[in-house]
Design goal:
heterodimer, A: 247 residues, mainly alpha, globular, B: 255 residues, two-stranded antiparallel ribbon
Chain lengths: 247, 255
Amino acid sequence: MLWYKMWRESWIRFAVSSVALLWMCGAVVLLQRQVRAHADEPLSYAHYIWSAVYKANVLDLFILLVIVLGLGGVLQESAQGTAGFTLSLPVSRWRLIAVRAAMGWAQVAILALLPALLISMLSPFVGEVFPLARALQFSVLWAGCGMVIFAMSFFFSVVLPGSYSPAIASVAGLLAYSALADLPLLERYPPLDLLKTMHGEQLSNIQGKASLASFAVPLPWLSLSLYALVALCIVWAAGSTMAHRDF
Amino acid sequence: MNGMTPLLLKAWRESSGRFLLGAALLSAICVLGVFCRGSLMKVFVPNEAFTGDPYIGYIYHLIYGGPGRGLFIILVIVLALGGLQRERLHRTVGFTLALPMKRAWLVLAQALLGIGQVVVLSALPLLLLGMCSWLAHVSYPLEQMLRFGLLWLAGGTVFYAVAILAATLFDSEYTALAASFVFTIFYPITVMFPPLSRYPLNVHHIMSGLSMPYFDANKALLVGEPPWILLASMIAVAGVLIVLAVQIVKHRDYS
């Protein structure tokens, strides 16, 4: 029942996000000929997809949509007068937090998967190929890094009142993090750069076809494990804050 | 005190937190950008073809053509959300609609205050960069800041109007936010393709000057006359969108 509640609260956002991502990826694939024709230098299809989807606009959209998915929760419900109902359910506050986080992470993972499926399926219709295995590698990066972004937005939703302040704080946090990661002091540790990890530049440079057998090798598992740990810690901090809060 | 003043006060009370938080963040970028330039200038580096003043190129890449502008757009969108749909969720819409004011005035007061907030946010870099640059003994041309402020104001008003329309259309406040974000990213891609690509329709480019005839990318400076017709057209588009939002609110059932 709790899962159903969390789904009902977020499904419209999730549906809008899914449609938007599919729409944008579809446009990128279908209009590839025109864009590549206007490029400053010859652009392979794989590099075009990486530039348009995994490095630039679609990635930016994905990040913003993940932030929006992380918004909501009991603090926001208190403004709507429904917090009392939620808190009186026969479940612990920790369970509320855990289910909402798990539902959000599942939605983030599905959103990360959508571009991979659509691009691989649509590419043959424009006479091109983008290997599913390669696309799924990018999805793993997006899902892993998206967990942290979701957790950050989730945390701010627990500690900041108001519907929109958590969104502003999340965007600001990401900008600050991005600038810090580029500073010479931290630049020496590439695994710490969340956005660069999401770009997956190392994957875009791999020549030849990707196969399911060689799927896992090029992925930065150390970074992804680190991000998963950080995301869990942030959600734990959010749970701890909520468990002791007077609503 | 006429009827508009309390509505403006109500709109201010509803959005002041978001506005002050946003203004603080934008201010932080500007102030830290100037005083921490030693480290950040290694990050926000102009491209190889750049031949102008390094500080001017750096400020452009950090503020007017970089993360500062991105943050400004997101702040403007967040400022526009709220209104009667949100009040319906919070169960205060009955109170607001029972006020002896026309529905159109409610939306117009929100829009008027919001555009005022966009004006302040557009002017913040001008004030802070000017002051901090002076304190740090570096200089960024005042005339450039004024012109970029004008471009931000016009572009920001368009994004504000889009978000106010989304907040009017969608029942859920978060859906309106998601839809506005989608528009922000999807729309500039759409106008890249013919026949739209022949016209200067990309608000992001208009705001940053990128690929525009009034911008010298090699020196990161705005040149020539400001694009008055373009700016007036953007304000007109924003006006049309706000009028559309007013019409929707006038005919909507909030029960």
